[in-house]
Structures are given as C-alpha cells and as structure tokens.
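Below sits our specimen:

——
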Amino acid sequence: MKFAIIDISSSSISLLAAEGEKTFDILFRERENVSILHYMEGKNLSERGVEKIAENLGKMKEICRKAGIDKCYVISTASMRNFENFEWVIEELYKRVAVRVNLLDGQEEAYCDLVSNERYRALDRAVLADIGGGSIELCDLTKDNPDSLVYLDFGPIQINHRFVANIHPTEGEAKDIKKYVRKKLEKSGLPGGGALSTAVLVGATNQAIYDVYCDYYDEERAAGEKRIEYDRLKKLCKHLVRSSDRSMLVLKNAPEKIYTLTTATVILRAMLKYFGVSNVVVSEFGVKEGYLSLVTDGRWKGVETDLDEVPEGVSVPAPVEEQPVAEKKAGKGRKAAKAAKAEKAEEKPAAKRRGRPKKAVAEEKPAEVVTEVKAEEKPAAKRRGRPKKAVAEEKPAEVARGSRRRSQSGGKARCQAPRTSQESRCGREARGSRSGSQGNRTGSDGNGARRNRDGSQSGRKAGGKTGAAQKGAHRQGCGDRRRGKTRTPHPPQGGKARGQRPRGGEARPPHPPQGRKVRG
C-alpha cells in the first residue's frame, strides 16, 4: 500500500511518499517553498496567504493522484498553531481544495521526532533537537519516559520579532539571543554542562544549516550519515553574523529561509554550548516519518484526505453514458435531419452588414482609357501666395546691345551702323577713365579706395592716365574761373571728357569734384 504525508510548515509545504506495511520504503519527496511570514497580518494569516497554501496543496494532491497513492494525510505543526485565526484557515482550505488538516501540538510533534529516530538511542548520551519556525522540540534519548520530551514555545520567527531589527542579527543582538536561549534551557529541566555528548539534529531548518555548512567549507554533502564539527560551526555562526556576503550564502542554499537561518544558527550554537556536546549528527527523518509510523500501526488515528473529493463550488462534468444499438440507429436519422436543416440555413442569403458600406474596388481599365481620363482631368488649382517670377527669355546679342544704346540716348531707338574696332576701343578707354575719376573722387575721403576697390582698379588698368589728365583739367578750369578767364578743356585722347555727350553737341564745362569746396 502507498501512503503520503503532506506537512504544512512555516517556510514550505513538503510531501513524503512511502510504500509498505510495517517497514516503509521512501518512494519520493517533494517540497514547495512558501514563506508564511510574508502573508501575516499581525498574528493572523491573510486571505492571500490562505490562497497561496491552497494552491500548493492542490499541486501536492495532484502529484499523489498521479502516483497512485492509496491514503493521504495532511498535518500541520507550530506554524498553524501560532495563527489566532487557525480555525478559519482550516475551514477555508477544506472549501478550496478539499483538504482535511491534522493539527499537532508541541508534545505530539516531539514524539513523532522520537519515533522516527529511535535508532539513535544507541549513541552515547544523545539528545534530539528539532528547530522549527515557531517552536523547538528536544528529547533526551537517555531516558524512556514522557519527561524526556521537552517543547519550547519559541523559534526563529518569535526570536526575530523580539530581538532582531533587520534581516540578520548583529553581534549585540546575537549575545541577547544566546542569553535568552540559555535561560529557557535551564528552566526546561534538561541536563547541561557536559552531561550529553552527541546531538542529533532533525528537521528542515537543521538540514538547511548543514547545506550552508558544506558550501562554506567546500565539502561534499554526504549520502549516508551527515556530521558537523562544533568548532567549525562556531566559525560559520560568526561569519553569518559579521560578514557582508552572508545573504548570498543563504540565498544560494536555502532562499526560503533568508529571514530565519542566521537566527536559527545562533540558537543552535547556544544549545550545543549548553549541552556541552562534541559530536553533531544530522538526521533525514523527522515528523512526517514518525507520524506515518504511528498512523499505520494503529497507535494514532488521523483524518484521511480523499484525493478524489472535489472542493465546494467546483462543477464536475457528468459522465457520458453509452447508448444502445437501436437508439444509435435512430440517432443517425436525427443527425441526417439536422444536417439537412444546416444546409438550408447555409443557402439563405447572408444578413446585411451593419455600419458604413465598404468602398467598391475599382476595376482595372486599359492603358488607352486611362490616358484619356488623364487628359480630361480638371486644371490644377491655383497656387496661393506671390506668383513666381517668369524666367526671361534669352535675347540675341544684337538686340541686347541695341536696348543698351536706347537707354543711353534717352530711350529713343536709333539705327546705327556697327562700330569699328578702333571706336569700340576708344569707348572702353572712356568708360575706364570715367570709373577711374570716380575712384579718385571717392578716394579723397580716405576710405574710397578700399570701398570702391573694383572701380578704382578697373580705372587704373583701363584709363589711369586719362583720369589724371582730366583731374588736371578740372583744376586748371577752376583757376581760370577765379581769374575771370574761360577755357574749354580738351578732351583726353582715347576717351570722352566728363560732361560731354556721347555723340555730337556742344561740350559742357566739367563739374567740380564732389567733396571739395571751390574757393571764390
């Protein structure tokens, strides 16, 4: 026969599956890490915490159902006892996942540890220690009476609330914890001061301490008997209290016990020091194995959980019954009639679609028709804003030259014969002399040469000499007028004098240069 024990603790929900009658073979173990501390509201478990526990219990039930478990028992220890609303929690778990919880008190929990570890009685002066989340169970294996079982109503969770301010205790907080544990052990009646030599560690918390111990000292985890040296455990305890990388060490090996493992190590060291033990052994058997032995041999009667029971509010589909042969044939005719009705329904026109009708897709037209449509398109809309300037058409060289001549002669068009090369050369020299005179006139201000650099340079190149002669003529004319003489200056050779018409007419006297005052 196959049995399963599901244990709800403060940091996990674990499953033990075994097969046998009086002696059992372990089939497999399962564990889901759930830290109930995160779902506490004062001393009550929140609804979210109940939901999380129910979810993991449902997973465990499904594993048991697939494994073909015959009998399943769900137990809970101090983690559930410490809830002030534990009765409501038990009712909610039954409603949600159809689980019946067997609640164990401290004495029953310690007795289960004793039953599962009877073989360690052979050790010299041994004491059994189980550090849980909310309680500590101790058993003196040298005695065989009920007084040998001791239950302490505190655990790492209560110690953290009382002494520890952060995640890990400080050195001062660790000293206070050790003093508190020693006082509780002195009141328990257990012998100390070297009366016991061997400690047997039981439970998930002690197993997590062993895993951290092996990782810290880089040792392989033993498959059989597991041992811990007390002196090396003291160094590990100091490291967990003082070191800055202690959290990484805990998260690597027991992440679900990040809030309680350092405190549990401090408690364990204080207990071992009180008993004066020199040998430490870690056992794989605990409450689940002891409860299984007590239930199967008839010493205890536990409430069994039916794996096939459906929780309240969950509907189950009705099973499909097989029809007789005659009804199946009649059913074929009915199916044919239904199929004919379905075909008629398909022949009916489709219902009109609500909303705006879809745009009709334009059919592709031949290339010729498309070109005609483009030709008949409306003219482009007028562009807003200032119209663009029209690009002037290039005119022939003769027309452009004639327009320049008309502008010089007062706007009237005249038909003239083309100039010879000598006349054109004389005209260029005259223009150069005129620009040179303008450059000299502006140069008298001091900055003219710099401002009209282009004009003065062209004047110097083309008619510098004529400009100087014309300047002298102006000065001579001014002197003659002061003396009362009139003199007509001769035009410079190779160019026109200032004030002279381009063609024909009398010569006008030159104007005085700008920027100068005429004396007299």
